[in-house]
Amino acid sequence: MSEQHYDVIVIGGGPGGYVAAIRAAQLGMKTACIDATRGKADGKMALGGTCLNVGCIPSKALLDSSRQFHNLTHMFKDHGISADNAAIDVGTMIGRKDKIVKQFNGGVAQLFKANKVTAIHGKATLHKGRKVVVKGFDDSEQTLSATNVIIASGSIPIELPFAKFDGKHIVDNEGALDFDSVPQRFGVIGAGVIGLELGSVWKRLGADVTIIEALPDFLAAADADVAKTAAREFKKQGLDIKLGAKLSKAEVKGDEVHVTYSDAKGEQSAVFDKLLVSVGRRAYTQGLLADDAGVQLTDRSLIKVDDHCHTGVDGVWAIGDCVRGPMLAHKASEEGIAVAEMIAGLPGHIDFNTVPWVIYTEPEIAWVGRTEQQCKDEGIPYKTGSFPFAAIGRAVAMNETAGLVKVIAHAETDRILGMHLCGANVSELVHEGVVAMEFKGSAEDLARICHAHPTLSEAVHEAALAVDKRAIHKAN
To answer: Would you name any one GO CC term (predicted)?
Structure first.
């Protein structure tokens, strides 16, 4: 039997891969997408990658459930609403999360069907000449070929040699999404996006949460003003964040995890019921590339690509978490679309300077573009304007007054260089900055755009006005 040939084979069905496959099919190319993810309950193909199955979507489901419970027990009294003896059924909460995931797994499968994308379940290995060998979970094997191959293999959690995952006591992000009860003492290694979000989930439900972070600064990637504001709010919530604390040992004893770490005061110890290790992710390339594939890896095991996501091997591209750039679902999707369009002979481009970042804590944290420190480091003349949500009528009415919006603009051209936000719904508001920056907008452009009143977006408007010291609702 001759091997099946495709115009495009995509390896990986996550937000980079499945989007690339759909766009390629839309452009008239015969397309297949190979993915190895198996559903939690049935073991069947579960398209959507880490983002949908054990990342973005399930974590947002739990964040929303825990927020509802926290508001019920802590915030509703301010509105005159009483709720005695409130309780959370963790099993129901987890079941809701699983139902949402399965719904979207089916949604991606339906999109494949509608766009005539062939979905193949199994583990793929790329060989010379764009040959792809797929090994199924039933030990079957098939060889495919393609004119173009797009690698979108994603990433996996980094495991520490002295804190290995056991799936029960020491867990990765997937394990922390599936606890069957609220741990009394929850330890988190790493104060990044995953650590803060999942730490927030279980804190709201009653856990004592300790976050151990090796770096001396909190949220070093964010603007310092936003990081300072967020840290203050998390402290109020009872999240115990220890900075400059390096884990050296995690040992399971009975049903407890005993950890040892060092900080400025010397060696410390702590005991937890559950320990989440979230110290970052690495590209998933295990078994992906045959020796003759020709695709090169960096010293960080990322797939080497140029500015257009091409690997240097004719007809082989790579996108998403397995290549350079931020490990973000939306960045992967945009790269997938760009590569599919370039294969079709169309222009394709993504500007990393306008990729937004979001942390879905309470308050939310979001930013796009340069931080103030980056402007200083790069010698860029800049000016800033900021505005607090505490002075926004809608925020006060919502009882969501924490946080601020900060706009950074070039001191000479007034072009917006970055927007940094902390507060309610800033995951949506940050896109005012994204759009303005994509159109090379200035702070004055934002300042002259009429914003509806009363809205949270007025904080963006006032921050833009504040760049030139003309905010209306605060002293400049």
So the answer is: cytoplasm
